[in-house]
Amino acid sequence: MTESQTFRPRWQEQNRTPQLSAEPSTIFRFLDIYETSMLRSILTVSASFLALVAQPISLNAQTFPVSSSTDEERSSRDDRQSDSRQDSQDEYDSEQSDGIEPTRVTDEASRNRTQSREKSEKSKSLFDRDPADTRKAEPNEFETYVTRMLGRPLQRFGADLVLPDGRDFERSADATIPPDYRINVGDTISISLTGSAEGSVERTVDNNGRIFLSSVGEITLAGVRQGDLKAVLTRAIGTQFRNFRVGVRTTELRGVRVFVTGYAVNPGAFSVNSLTTAFNAILQAGGPAAGGSWRNAKLVRDGVEIADIDLYDILINGNRAKDVTLENEDVIVIPPAAPQIAVAGSVRREAIFELRGSETIEDALRYAGGKDELAEISRVMIYSTDMTGVPGPREILAKEFGSTVVRAGDVIQVLAEGNLMRPTDRQSVVVRVEGEVVNPGNYYVEPNKPLDEVIKLAGGYSQRAFVYGAGLTRQTVMVQQKRSFEEALDLFEIALASSPLQSTNGLDQRRSEVQLLAAKATLAKLREAKPDGRLVLETKPDSQSLPRGILLENGDRIVIPPRPTSIGVFGAVYRPASFQIDETNPRKIRDYLELAGGTLQAANRGDIFVVRANGSVLTRSQGAFNQKALPGDVVFVPIRTQSSDIFTKIAQISSIVFQLGLAAATVAAIN
């Protein structure tokens, strides 16, 4: 459907011939217009073809289509002819009635305009400059001072809104247009009709604030509220049509040019749509610069200041009463920043805040979102840059928060007390008991309750309990093991890096490089290992109870395993396996090595070790071969390496961690 066929009487859609006696002149006018239009179309195509044939062919020059005055005149004549045809079709009386929004019928020309508009919006840059030239706000001197004081960076409040690259703060033209929006020059209005006259058109408000509809004439829309737009168009169309329904929407908003000046990160001219507010434009400009104010932006229109914008009022309170919608040639001025303070510690939002008047500590804490759950509620500490006062922090009690005025450069520290560590002997704890006990479960324990008392709470040991293999895992031990383990790996990494310089084994260069890569890969896997936090208990193989006097910590986990019936032999042996242990006929460790077929030729017999069920480690130098094997023992035979450098130690450690899953305590014992 073309725009010339937009508003058509219903009888044309239903292919019914009207009575000639009613309107004979209308049909004759329609036929004349149709013949004239067809003739002009044929002549236009013929002329275009002749011009193309007559044009010389050039291979050295590239030509681009340029709209000529003849094209513009022809387009103008076509529009006038289209309007004339619409006049002949729209002379049909009907009765006006209210209706619902119809389904929009889009013609080919409208689709082309929409595609062109979308392509233009994608390629358009908001800034009147290369986006690569935009920059971010650098920290000011006070930010640097606070960062050095706290040992970590602290940003100005609001700065995190504009730091991410590519964030678009311009209000989208596709957003819902508020009812109070005033239609202005350049806005595009889509109008659709159903009923006695059907079709759809898009019209752009001209420089006089009007649109033109065939058979209706000019309609003034500039200044009309978006909420009143449908009613205004219905009244205008109703002067010529009856019994119709009208649907109206604003499809495109005009662009306006505004200026953001002063202490902005990226000051300059901006092209935005007519829904953009001052707040949007400030953020599009990168926000206030290091020395710019977040609290005193000025909006100037026609040389007169019309708004004083406090961005904190929007960011903290959500109040956009002064966030004015921009108009063409508006100027936003960002003045220098007001005095600043910092709030750090146990608050909801640590930041550097800008003052606007005589704010108190209470106001500053409100800016920071208030204290969090771990904060001390009775006081805060203030560090001042005033050289005339007493050096060091000042303590301000809670009752003075509302009367103590903060000064430029103050740093307010909110202390935490909820996460303070208490003495162990004063802590009540929750302990988890699992395995071979009568009543496994979680038990609340009073302070200073020993380990054996918790076992009694669990009903005592079952008949199959193996007390010697009991495991006690603890969070604090896990943290300590992890720290020690990482330190050991760091030392290994340093030794590994220096190993090629110290190597005297005579290997050729390529072989050394291969070993170095393999060692690095092993070290990377070692860093993935996690200590289990197991605490090795001083128990004997025939113990019937756990040691007394061990104070429990919150989160402790006690696992009593069943009595094992095997001993494992792994590593460089002919037949790695687990062998059943006969406690009536005890054997030594060397006997189980022989059951595994003995050691391979590549085995390092000097470093054989045994890990016992309680987590302790027994090495050959401690007489491991001649020790009596115990239930749950694990014997490991490492492989001999070709040198005694760092590669040997890493091979041992990696074998232990990945084949046996030992704790960091075992690793420390090997070292």
Automatic annotation (TrEMBL):
It comes from the Bacteria. This is Capsule biosynthesis protein. Gene3D superfamilies: Outer membrane lipoprotein wza domain like, wza like domain. The keyword Signal applies. The keyword Transcription regulation does not apply. Pfam families: Poly_export, SLBB. It comes from Sphingorhabdus wooponensis. Residues 89-98 have a biased composition (Acidic residues). InterPro entries: Poly_export (IPR049712), Poly_export_N (IPR003715), Soluble_ligand-bd (IPR019554). Residues 178-249 form the Polysaccharide export protein N-terminal domain. Residues 71-88, 104-139 have a biased composition (Basic and acidic residues). Residues 1-21, 64-140 are annotated as: Disordered. Keywords: Signal. Residues 257-303, 341-383, 430-465 form the Soluble ligand binding domain. GO terms for molecular function: polysaccharide transmembrane transporter activity.
